[in-house]
Amino acid sequence: MAFVQFSKVSLSFGDKKILDNVSVNLKTGTKAALTGANGAGKSTLIKIMAGLQEPDGGERVAQKDARIVYLPQSGLTHSGSTLLQEADRAFDYGYKIQEEIDSIGDALKENPPNSAELLERHAALLARLEESGWYRRDALAESVLLGLGFSRADFAKMTDEFSGGWQMRIALAKALMQGPDILLLDEPTNYLDIEARDWLESFLQNFKGGFLLVSHDRYFLDVTINEVYELFNGQLKCYPGNYSHYEKVREAELKTLMAEYQKQQEEIAHLQSFIDRFGYKASKAVQAQSRQKMLDKIVPIEIPESLKKIHFKFPPAPHSGQLVFRAKCVTKSYDGATKVLDNLDLQIENGERLVVVGHNGAGKSTLLRIIAGVDKDFSGELIPGSGVQIGYFSQDNAETIKGSQSVLQSIEDICPLELVPKARDMLGAFLFRGDDVFKSLDVLSGGEKSRVALLRLLLKPINFLILDEPTNHLDMQSKDALLEALKDFGGTVVFVSHDRGFIQDLATRVLELKPGSARNFLGGYEYYLERVASESGGTVAGQNSGGAKSSQAQNAAGGNSRQAPNASQASASANPSQGQKSAAAISWEEQKKAANEKKRLERLIESLGAQIEEKEKAIKALEEKMSDPAVYSNGAKATEVQKQIAAASAELDALNAQWEEAAEKLG
């Protein structure tokens, strides 16, 4: 088992301790996330693990020949080769092993005295080469590149032709193809669409090595990792379970911490009040000095920034009519031949949260620019509704943020009067905390300018929001704050996002774009995924034991679909004479047998239902047990409870399968 262990790693920047005696052990099978507030030191810790930055102190121990591959957030570019040639460089490790194998082969021809040692080394290298997948490198390269969204036509393109986001996809592909023992990924989903994220999720679930990743995508973390490391105040603590479970456990801890924090704040206020009142009075000088010493000795309790709940609301949306927007026969082509949009008809009603989905190049951002009135080079008709006031956001908005004004001043200048006192809180929700609010607009990074542009837009009196990737450059807590604000928004929203959790929680309707075609799904994102999955499997969504759900799903569908005939209808169609046979023709024994079987199934379904309910209660009790500090702070107890939860969940799955089978037989 490959491993790399870091013990008591420390690093300081000036007086601030970034890492304070941090220890972590990464090994084969590790599936972990690293979390913490912006600026906590996550990227620094990963760089130290990758050997790219030296700590002030600590020890690093790694198994011999253990390979660590690191992918940074951004900044990697490639040039001077085709995509396939660049991908092949991911296998340099294998080429070096092959060179050593060939060298040993040449040496053995001379029958040297250390032949036995060379033969042993030769066999070990052959085994390593086989395990690395080097002999299957061409198939692996094709699989990874296609999975991350490249087309076969891209394989022969020069890497210089790819944009920054695609450059990072190339870097990610190379990291994955190397098949390392330990994989360190810093925001790997930043430049991926949903399809590529889904593929990466599957890859990591089946990855044989260990990995540690930083991500602000809650859904992505929940389906890929089984433990979370939180970096807070220089300390690193491990929490077993997925990210959502970590949040629940940490929230329980935070309640206790908040109570202690509140108590400390009251004590500080009381001491400071006495000092302010009597500090200059000779008769009270001794007491004031005593309280000042008490105040100086207090070690301030800090609340993790990543777990602070931030809430804000938009200004009230101006009134608009029920019909917000109509598009008729919209057609768009960039080259005059290929139609990105072809005779698209679209109607958007007040209060909808419409998400536009589709592969890269399907026309999502193009459609949003057309609706917003930014792109006028198309054919067709746009009909805005009565009283509609459009607000449009894309990453290009960052270019409009410039000047010597501070971030805070630029927000206060456009903020409605009643929201001015909350400007600092709103900026905090968009990751401008502490002295960051006093930065001038000109010195902001591209991501910071993008966040300012989004907040400025949301503070305007708008009732029709068009948002292209609004969650880029936001952390999880900021996404949550934005999500809640959009849910409470009194107007209409059309958006594109690659964050699956954000889409699932916000979208009330889905528009799927494919090159030259579009389909409406009058339901949320889960419903859309079920429809697509069932159609690819050859069945219509909703054909299961839940008849009511089936009918609802069919009524919600915006496409042309018909309800599939049930088994008895299919049988009757295939054999009309059998379908016309009357019940009287069935023998009494057969009727009695059928009645008994029906009763048996009904009793079984009732019994299984009761068992399922009990099992769900047991799992809930175990999950609540995990929130007990006496359990989650004890590694052995936490592991045992996790095993119990896993066993109970497996039993629940089996009971559900039995229930579904019995319900299907009962009809």
Can you walk me through this structure?
The chain is α/β, with parallel strands linked by helices. It is 46% helix and 18% strand. It is built from 23 helices and 18 strands. The strands form four sheets. The chain has a six-stranded mixed beta sheet with strand order 5-6-7-3-8-9, with helices on both faces. The longest helix is centred in the last third of the chain and has 39 residues, at 588-626. The chain is globular.
Key traits:
globular, 18 strands, 667 residues, 6-stranded mixed beta sheet, 23 helices, alpha/beta, single chain
Helical coverage, percent range: 40-55%
Strand order of the largest sheet: 5-6-7-3-8-9
Main sheet: strands, sense, barrel: 6 strands, mixed
The count of helical stretches stands at 23
Span between N and C termini?
A: 51 Å
Quote the average pLDDT: 82
Q: How would the global form be characterised?
A: globular
Q: How many runs of DSSP E, i.e. beta strands? A: 18
Over the alpha carbons, how many angstroms does the gyration radius reach?
30 Å
